[in-house]
User: Which sequence fits this backbone?
């Protein structure tokens, strides 16, 4: 199980230091939730902030664009050369075009879906998709409780990819902690985004170790 600490839950006044700490803790990716104040209520990391942070972060960047028109902002974030970039199904009109642009820029192309979005929408774009990010909370705020019904959707998605012989990763984001990561892995997740469970822990490195241990018990 790969672990991506969500920087939104860290000390926002010390982003570069927090990024370095995530590497020292043994994380696999650094997850950044980009919010525009329209698709979700909050504002977070603009492209200049992410670009400046990338100069200090050795972990590969995992960008999650929670924005109303991701195709308009896409080039600014792709220029930062993230390892992975996810856009929301609910926010994109021409998904095949956007996913192709992400891949052409050298990043893994991801589709994020909200808890209430039907997974069947993903079937036609599986060949263009490297991973799907299942939101297990409604996006926009850190520290929310895990929504259990998303697990059934994740299992249906795994059945879909198996039927289509599609090698698509499954990431999960929202309310991930020691109590929920096992269920997420059982439902097919191979990457977990965790915020409060890591940054709010007395020993964040040990928290990541424990998350992996719990995940391994379900793998």
Assistant:
């Amino acid at each position: 199980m790969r672990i991506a600490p969500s920087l939104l839950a860290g000390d926002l006044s010390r982003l570069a230091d927090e990024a370095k700490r995530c590497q020292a803790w043994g994380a696999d990716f650094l997850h950044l939730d980009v919010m525009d104040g329209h698709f979700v209520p909050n504002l977070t990391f603009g492209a200049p902030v992410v670009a400046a942070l990338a100069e200090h972060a050795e972990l590969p960047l995992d960008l999650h664009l929670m924005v109303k028109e991701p195709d308009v902002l896409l080039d600014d974030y792709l220029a930062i050369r993230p390892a992975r970039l996810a856009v929301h199904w609910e926010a994109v009109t021409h998904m095949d075009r956007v996913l192709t642009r992400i891949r052409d820029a050298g990043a893994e192309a991801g589709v994020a879906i909200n808890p209430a979005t039907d997974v069947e929408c993903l079937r036609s774009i599986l060949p263009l998709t490297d991973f799907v990010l299942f939101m297990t909370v409604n996006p926009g705020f850190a520290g929310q409780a895990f929504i259990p019904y998303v697990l059934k959707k994740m299992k249906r998605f795994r059945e879909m990819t198996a039927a289509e012989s599609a090698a698509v990763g499954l990431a999960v984001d929202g309310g991930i902690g020691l109590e929920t990561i096992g269920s997420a892995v059982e439902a097919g997740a191979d990457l977990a985004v965790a915020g409060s469970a890591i940054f709010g822990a007395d020993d964040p490195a040990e928290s990541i170790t424990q998350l992996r241990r719990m995940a391994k018990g379900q793998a």
User: Anything to note?
Assistant: The CA atoms of residues 50 and 80 lie 8 Å apart. Strands lie at 2-5, 30-35, 61-66, 84-88, 108-113, 131-135, 169-173, 191-194. Helices lie at 15-25, 47-54, 70-78, 95-104, 150-164, 181-186, 196-199, 204-218. The chain has one domain: 2-218.
